[in-house]
Specification:
Number of strands: 2
Largest sheet: 2 strands, parallel
Shape: flat
Mean pLDDT: 79
Radius of gyration: 32 Å
Number of domains: 2
Number of helices: 10
């Protein structure tokens, strides 16, 4: 890049560029929120279209999940009153787990709804979707256009500021140093997460090593003092060779057993909760988020094709 001959020139430009970048990030968030509000207003109006139907179906899916949350709580209250005291703890745990799963689905449904609203709002601002004539829709559209115009003006000002410096106010060596520092920090955090976060076999080995050190000793004096209640050392005395073997093999055996049990438990859980395989002649189709109707009917009932494919009752 080409920097100014005076050091103060690019330093001042860098400071102003940082301030403008912060304003651009805020304006971009405001523009996204305005587009979502516009999409929600269109979904609540008399507008029609594929994107409008998708936003409405996402909203129906969210409503079904909220209804399921309330129904789960009511069911737990009824079971808590009807069951014996020794079973009520299981009712509470079941309800907490069930509502945790429902809340996770609800967060996913809200993200999908917000994305659909934002796409609809942007389509209206770009002119690829029709705008209804309701007053609240026109007001939301005006606010979205103002937010987009503010973002566009800030981006233009930022580009004009950095144009004399080749698009960036920072020297090339500072940008390269920043990229390398970021890459080094990411690698460092990744290695720390893998090496210093203990897993179940490692915890089992640590616990076994602590148990050996607190239970056995290669000194008869330490064991005798413990038996006379004169110390807090290990109560059992073994030979030095036996103590070395215990310190080496017991943690390894404990880690191996924990690893084996974890793998077996994981395999059983995957086999139990894996979705059933399709029949040989069944048609495979994606489930869930590819279209709005499937996500809406996931909690509300069967789709039209599924109802039409069922045999009629005579």
């Amino acid at each position: 890049m080409q920097v100014s001959a005076e050091p103060r020139g690019w330093i001042a430009a860098a400071v102003v560029s940082w301030k403008l970048g912060w304003k651009i990030r805020r304006a971009r968030r405001a523009e996204r929120v305005a587009a979502r509000i516009l999409g929600g207003a269109l979904a609540g109006s008399s507008a029609v279209g594929r994107l409008v139907d998708e936003v409405r179906s996402r909203g129906h899916a969210e409503d079904h999940l909220q209804t399921a949350l309330r129904a789960s709580l009511e069911e737990d209250r009824a079971d808590f009153a009807a069951t014996s005291p020794r079973v009520r703890a299981f009712v509470v745990v079941r309800g907490l787990a069930a509502r945790a799963v429902l809340r996770d689905h609800l967060r996913a449904a809200r993200r999908a709804r917000d994305d659909a609203r934002e796409r609809l709002g942007r389509a209206v601002l770009d002119g690829s979707a029709n705008l209804s004539r309701e007053p609240f829709v026109n007001d939301a559209a005006g606010r979205a256009r103002e937010a987009r115009a503010r973002l566009s003006s800030l981006v233009t000002e930022h580009a004009a500021l950095l144009a004399p410096f080749g698009g960036s106010a920072w020297p090339d060596w500072m940008e390269a140093a920043g990229r390398e520092t970021s890459a080094l920090g990411s690698s460092f955090v990744r290695v720390l997460g893998r090496q210093f976060v203990p897993r179940l076999p490692a915890l089992g080995g640590l616990g076994a090593g602590w148990w050996v050190a607190s239970t056995f000793a290669d000194s008869d004096l330490v064991a005798s003092l413990h038996s006379w209640s004169l110390g807090r050392g290990p109560p059992w005395a073994v030979s030095t060779d036996t103590f070395d073997l215990l310190r080496f093999w017991v943690p390894i055996a404990a880690a191996a057993v924990c690893s084996y049990l974890g793998n077996r438990l994981g395999a059983r859980l995957r086999a139990r909760y894996a979705p059933p395989s399709l029949a040989p002649g069944a048609e495979s189709r994606p489930i869930g988020r590819s279209d709005g109707a499937s996500s809406a009917t996931k909690w509300g009932g069967s789709t039209t094709n599924e109802r039409s494919s069922r045999p009629a009752l005579k």
